[in-house]
């Protein structure tokens, strides 16, 4: 498959589309980004790298980070976390509180905000220095120690994080947050504020393409069963209340973030990351979805 040619064609097609969607502004620091920024990077299993646009520019990965925090929790704990967080799509926005009350403080899945807060709570109980350890974990999978937090974004999230604080408090009332709420929120805001480029994201997501093996070290970080489950959760829960639409149009497991990034994988074939900050009303990158839809359409291959 000539991925570079496919990406070039896609770039040409999307460049002529009228700009659609808005940059996330509920976290003021995110609104500073160029709305028309665009990049994509694909890594295949034979070590090939293919890129278009600003694939080396770092952006706020936001909720894509929830995949890495889940990976770390699973690699440390195995199954016990599933008593505290479900594996069902929410069908609701990423920051919705409605189900939490009905479902006794057990979030639907670990890729929505409430679920990621529970995972952060879990990690605080497992790690000596959670922020530093989490960053080292991502750097290890990525094989890149330049990956870091953007502290201005983390501070901006904290200042405007009333909904996340409300969710953490509600879950604490149900007994599903065990540590100090401020500590849990602080870790959560930092993990969302990780900055990576499309190249770094695609390279990191190779872990899921290779069924839980870090390709550049050979370490089997997740068991095959854990990797299968993680990919299943991305497929069913990676796009909030648009997970069905993403499966329907793209057909790959993936995860989006309100920074405009989407990372996705074709198990055993490739990983891909796209970045375009204009979001559709559901909070997913408008062009990002389009690019990935074109990718699976033009290559004629998805997981289905
Ligand atoms: N940090 C963001 C929040 O908590 C993450 C949301 C997202 O990317 N969907 O609201």
Report on the structure:
This protein has 304 residues and is α+β, with helices and mostly antiparallel strands. It has a single domain (3-298), classed as 3-Layer(aba) Sandwich (Beta-lactamase). Helix content is 45%, strand content 11%. It contains twelve helices and eight strands. It has helices at 3-15, 65-77, 98-102, 113-126, 130-142, 151-159, 162-173, 181-192, 198-209, 224-237, 243-249, 286-299, and strands spanning 39-44, 49-53, 59-60, 148-149, 194-196, 254-256, 261-266, 270-275. The chain has a five-stranded antiparallel beta sheet with strand order 2-1-8-7-6. Strands 3-5-4 form a three-stranded antiparallel beta sheet. A hairpin with a 3-residue loop joins strand 7 (261-266) and strand 8 (270-275). Helix 4 (113-126) packs across helix 7. The mean pLDDT is 96. Bound molecules: glutamine (GLN). Glutamine (GLN) is lined by residues 62-63, 94-95, 113, 157, 164, 192, 257-258, 283.
């Amino acid at each position: 498959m000539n991925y570079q040619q496919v990406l070039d064609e896609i770039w040409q097609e999307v460049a002529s589309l009228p700009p659609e969607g808005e940059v996330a502004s509920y976290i003021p620091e995110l609104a500073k980004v160029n709305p028309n920024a665009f990049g994509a990077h694909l890594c295949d299993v034979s070590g090939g790298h293919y890129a278009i646009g600003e694939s080396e520019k770092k952006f706020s990965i936001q909720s894509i980070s929830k995949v890495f925090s889940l990976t770390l929790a699973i690699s440390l704990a195995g199954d016990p976390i599933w008593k505290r967080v479900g594996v069902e799509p929410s069908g609701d926005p990423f920051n919705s509180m409605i189900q939490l009350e009905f479902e006794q403080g057990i979030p639907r899945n670990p890729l929505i905000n409430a679920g990621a807060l529970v995972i952060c709570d879990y990690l605080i109980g497992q790690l000596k220095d959670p922020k530093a350890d989490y960053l080292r974990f991502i750097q290890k999978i990525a094989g890149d120690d330049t990956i870091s937090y953007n502290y201005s974004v983390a501070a901006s999230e904290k200042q405007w994080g009333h909904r996340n604080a409300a969710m953490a408090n509600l879950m604490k009332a149900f007994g599903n947050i065990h540590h100090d709420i401020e500590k849990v929120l602080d870790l959560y805001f930092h993990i969302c504020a990780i900055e990576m480029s499309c190249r770094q994201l695609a390279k990191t997501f190779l872990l899921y393409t290779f069924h839980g093996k870090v390709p550049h070290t050979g370490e089997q970080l997740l068991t095959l069963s854990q990797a299968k489950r993680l990919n299943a959760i991305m497929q069913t829960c990676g796009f909030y209340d648009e997970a069905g639409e993403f499966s329907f149009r793209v057909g790959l497991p993936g995860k989006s973030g309100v920074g405009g990034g989407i990372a996705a994988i074709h198990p055993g074939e490739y990983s891909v990351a796209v970045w375009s900050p204009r979001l559709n009303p559901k909070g997913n990158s408008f062009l990002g979805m389009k690019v990935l839809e074109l990718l699976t359409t033009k290559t004629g291959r998805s997981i289905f």
